[in-house]
Amino acid sequence: MKNSVMFFAVLVSNVMLLVSACGNESNLSPSTTSSLPTTNSTTSSTGSSSTTTTTANALTSLEIFKKVYGATEVYIEGNYAIIKANGLPDHKSPYYKDTQWATAKYEAYNGANNKFALNPNRIVSQSYVFKIPINPAKASNSSATPAGPIGISLNGVPFYNQYAAMNAPLTNEANGFDQYKGHPQQQGQYHYHVEPTYLTDQKGKDALLGFLLDGFPVYGPLEKGKTVTNSDLDGYHGHSHATTEYPNGIYHYHITDADPYINGNGFYGTAGTVSK
C-alpha cells in the first residue's frame, strides 16, 4: 500500500512537470501571423493620443506604395508609408552630362522647345526619405506646399510645386526642362514641376503617377478618355471618385497642362514629411 501511494505521488509529480514544460515551450514558440489580416491591428501612441491602422489597410497600402518602382525601399511604419529613393530618373537626360552615369544615361536635348537652354546644374544622387500617411484625410486647415519635394513620382523622382525660386512663375525656368520635362536644381535634385512625360508615355496619360506628401495619389491628364482641365478640378487641383487603385473612391490630384500643373492652393490633406 505504501509503495502504491509513493508510485501515485511520483506519477502526479511527473505529470505536473510535463504540463509546466509544455506551457513554457508554448511561450517560447515563434508567433504566427493570421492569414486573414482584417482582424489584426497595430497601434502607435504619441503622448496621450493614439492611432490604429488595421493590418489589412497596411498591407493594401504597402502594395499600392510599392508601385513607386524607383524607390530603394518601401515599408509601413505605424500609419505611414516610408519610401526611400535616390531621385535618379530612369530615363536619359542632358543633365546626366559629365556625371558618373553619363555613358549610359546622357542624351542631348531632343525635345520640341526651341528655347531650351541647359542649366548649369547636373543630376546628383540623393537620400530621400518620404513619410506619407496611409490613411489620408482632408485637413481641417490646409497648408501651402513648400519649396522642394511635395511628393514622389513612380520612378522615385520628386514632384515640385508650380513655382520657380522665390515663388516666381515657371515661365522662364520651363526653358530648362529636358525632353522628359524635368531638371535639377542647384544641389542636383532632379524633379518634375509638370507632367513627367516619360511616365505618361510608359504608363499612359490616365495612369497613377505618384503620391503627394499628404498621401493622396496623383493621376495623369486623361480621365475616362477625356483630357482633364483645371475647370474640372477644385482649388487643390483634384476631385474625388473611384479609380483603378482605389475602387471605393478617393480624393486624387490630376496633372494638367496649365498652371498649377500638379497641385493648387496647398495640400488637400495633412502632409507627411520628407528628409534628404
Task: Outline the fold blueprint.
Layout: H1 2-28, E1 41-46, E2 49-54, H2 55-65, E3 73-77, E4 80-85, H3 102-105, E5 128-133, E6 151-153, E7 158-159, E8 182-184, E9 190-192, H4 197-203, E10 208-212, E11 217-219, E12 222-223, E13 226-227, E14 238-241, E15 250-254, E16 273-275
Keywords:
276 residues, alpha+beta, 6-stranded mixed β-sheet, 4-stranded antiparallel β-sheet, 16 strands, globular, disordered N terminus
Q: Determine the structural class based on helices, strands and strand pairing.
A: alpha+beta
- Amino- and carboxy-terminal Cα gap: 82 Å
- The biggest beta sheet, please? 6 strands, mixed
User: For the residues shown, what is the average pLDDT?
Assistant: 85
Describe the 3D structure:
- Helices cover 18% and strands 23% of the residues.
- A six-stranded mixed sheet has the order 7-6-10-11-15-14. A four-stranded antiparallel sheet has the order 3-4-5-16, with helices on one face.
- The protein has four helices and 16 strands.
- Strand 14 (238-241) and strand 15 form a beta hairpin.
- With 276 residues, it is α+β, with helices and mostly antiparallel strands.
- Mean pLDDT is 85; it is low at 1-51.
